[in-house]
Specification:
The protein is mainly beta. The chain is built from two helices and 28 strands. The longest helix has 10 residues. It starts with 10 loop residues before the first strand and ends with a strand.
């Protein structure tokens, strides 16, 4: 440092999946693959004990600081790895938020002719497997009699794939289908699958180390802009020390995040002319008490997931009645968003069953819009995110 002040532009963050929860996985110096292109905010959230001892005056004794319960917030652009079957650098954080990582290394289908179809589904043929929900959440490329990038919201053992939208014409044997190589993140309740992470935060000659990081994630999509993932993690504070930012940390070349243009935004299998779409995995975590632990608690443990979201589509005489009826009747609506054009930097977001819990008519730029809040339904299947 040339100054004794800490310049926060000279900061960086690294993360790595832990083999043993709470045990430093980085071990001192992060590797190139550990670095994240992220904004980082830290709140130490200490336990404070009020001190009521008498002072012989009007003044109270100061509270006593107890164990630290750090909260780490990381905001990263939604960008891919550049290779369809190679996980993005932020994928490790999703794995710490009750998400499973599945990699499809090679495309499925040649492309392959469908057996039959409707406006919202396709009956697929071999080599597509006859296993229910095997491909749910994955993107689907259609060619032959049409050119379309869509997503699979449901898949049956009879090889029927329900799509996240309503096609202009029914699918047919002339419709060719292919699932591209992809990395799929899907919800799980299996504690043997989701992980914890070690996080290092450097700031101009200082370093904080955290272990056992677990938390929740959310996604923000803005039309015409780019997407952002936000991770809200709980962790254990290992230490703070003087440590220079390792050389070479900024040599990683990253793709430009895709814009949310020329893609897909479908609610209830119809076009949603939305300005903003937000999704929140809603994972609740606790810090188990342990008087023998360094700060009085063990690594964070997920206890509940309550996935929710919001969208603001412009009103349409074609879809407004159906949207309101679904809201009033509590009917589930599929939600799908697709953005990006280059393999390895494209994304498919799918919520198979969004139930509207709030709907407020309003206006945007002189046009009618709905502000819709929704809750996502389904055990271990409320929300999927695929890079392809």
């Amino acid at each position: 440092m040339s100054l004794d002040l800490v310049r926060m532009r000279f900061a960086a963050v690294a993360a790595k999946i832990e083999t043993t929860p709470g045990l430093d996985a980085i071990g001192g110096t992060p590797a190139n693959a550990d670095w994240l292109a992220a904004d980082c905010e830290i709140d130490f959230d200490p336990i404070t004990v009020e001190n009521s001892e008498l002072t012989g005056s009007l003044d109270r004794s100061p509270a006593i600081v107890g164990g630290m319960r750090p909260r780490i917030r990381l905001r990263v652009p939604l960008r891919g790895s550049g290779t369809p079957a190679t996980p993005p650098e932020w994928g490790k954080l999703l794995r710490c938020c009750t998400m499973a990582e599945g990699i499809t290394n090679a495309a499925i289908g040649a492309p392959t002719a469908a057996a039959s179809g409707t406006n919202t589904s396709l009956a697929l043929a071999t080599p597509f497997a006859a296993t229910a929900q095997l491909y749910r959440g994955m993107p689907l490329l259609l060619s032959g009699d049409r050119s379309l990038v869509t997503g699979i919201i449901d898949y049956t053992a009879a090889r029927v794939a329900s799509l996240g939208e309503t096609m202009a014409t029914p699918g047919a044997v002339a419709t060719l289908a292919q699932i591209p190589a992809n990395v799929l993140y899907s919800p799980t309740s299996d504690e043997a699958v989701y992980r914890t992470a070690t996080i290092y935060f450097y700031a101009d000659g200082l370093r904080w180390r955290f272990t056992g990081a677990v938390g929740s994630w959310s996604l923000e999509l803005s039309t015409g802009g780019i997407g952002f993932l936000v991770f809200d993690l709980r962790a254990q504070l290992l230490d703070k020390s003087a440590a220079a930012l390792p050389t070479g940390w900024n040599t990683v070349i990253r793709p430009t995040p895709p814009r949310f243009v020329n893609g897909r935004c479908q609610l209830n299998q119809q076009l949603a002319r939305a300005r903003r779409l937000t999704l929140d995995a809603g994972v609740n975590v606790i810090l188990p008490d342990n008087p023998e632990a360094a700060e009085g608690y063990d690594p964070a443990v997920p206890t509940e997931r309550d996935a929710r979201g919001a969208i603001d589509p412009l009103m349409s005489t074609t879809t407004a009645v159906a949207l309101f009826n679904a809201f009033r009747l509590g009917s589930a609506m599929p939600l799908m968003a697709i953005l990006g054009a280059n393999p390895g930097n494209r994304f498919c977001v799918i919520a198979p069953a969004a139930k509207a819990t709030a709907m407020r008519p309003g206006q945007r730029d002189g046009l009618g819009q709905f502000d819709i809040g929704f809750q996502l339904d389904g055990a271990d299947c409320p929300l999927f995110l695929a890079q392809f």
